[in-house]
Amino acid sequence: MLNWEAHACLPLHPQADFSPLDRLRAAGVNYVSVNVGMDMNPVSQILAVLAAFRANIAAHADRFRLVSSVPEIRAAAKAGVLAVGFDLEGAMPLLEQPDMVALYRDLGVRQIHLAYNRNNSVADGCHDVERGLTPLGLRTVKAVNDAGLLMDCSHTGRRCSLEIMAASSRPVIFSHANPLALVEHGRNISDEQIKACAATGGVVCVSGVSAFLGTRTPTADDVARHAAYVAGLVGVQHVGIGLDISFRQDELNDNPPGDYDPAYWWPKAAGYNRAVERMTYTPVETWRLLPEALQKTGMSAAEAAAVMGDNMLHVAGQVWHRPAA
């Protein structure tokens, strides 16, 4: 059994401390997708972060390993090191050039979604006016498929996500999303979206963020309840875990430079209070509690293992067909 954390956040700063990743490894995580930028972050910031994160991983080969394939994840687990990939949250870092997707892949990015909460020239965010996938968006989906990245629909508008899933030639994931049927929040996804994701052969990875779980003090049992709902709707083979823990380091200012308005990206009208400052997260140790929590919902030990990693390993094996340079 290998445990797959589909989304985690370090400060978007070259001096970010990587010790939280050691905590994930100690909790039993074998692979983690680390965010390296969102739609509000300029390319200059994202490239600086990528360079620093890559250098940090290379300098600590006894703890971390940048990977591009499932066999490499298995080899890292056997060696006792944490396998790491990167993800982008939004298409604005592509500068409206679909060819940029392959460039980011070669720098270690393994998954991408096309809009972060707000609309851009490619796709719709979940907290904005619905328009649907744009013509540029269609070309970008093809570029993501061709480059062998995981196509992620987290933070994406409902109509737009359905159009992305219809356009994708490969399985699509939600790396950190929860069922709208359990908690009414614009970031959560409808049964229609969950079923469409499963129809692509994809996986919905349940988030551990308080607002999306509907509690101020989220636990492994809360995550398991949401995972069980998705499993009941589309089958356990389409469920994963993306706790979306944000490892804040108060001494580092990782805000985008220039005119940055958090209230735009996390609008109060959508249910946020002071942007994301009041968000709480399941603790890292949730990973150790999840097997029992998932089995309490009625899953077998094998089904719990599938949710915790095997399902995402299967999808990655289908999508990651091109190694990094």
Automatic annotation (TrEMBL):
It comes from the Bacteria. PROSITE patterns: RENAL_DIPEPTIDASE_2 (PS51365). PANTHER family: DIPEPTIDASE, MICROSOMAL DIPEPTIDASE. This is Dipeptidase. It comes from Polaromonas jejuensis.
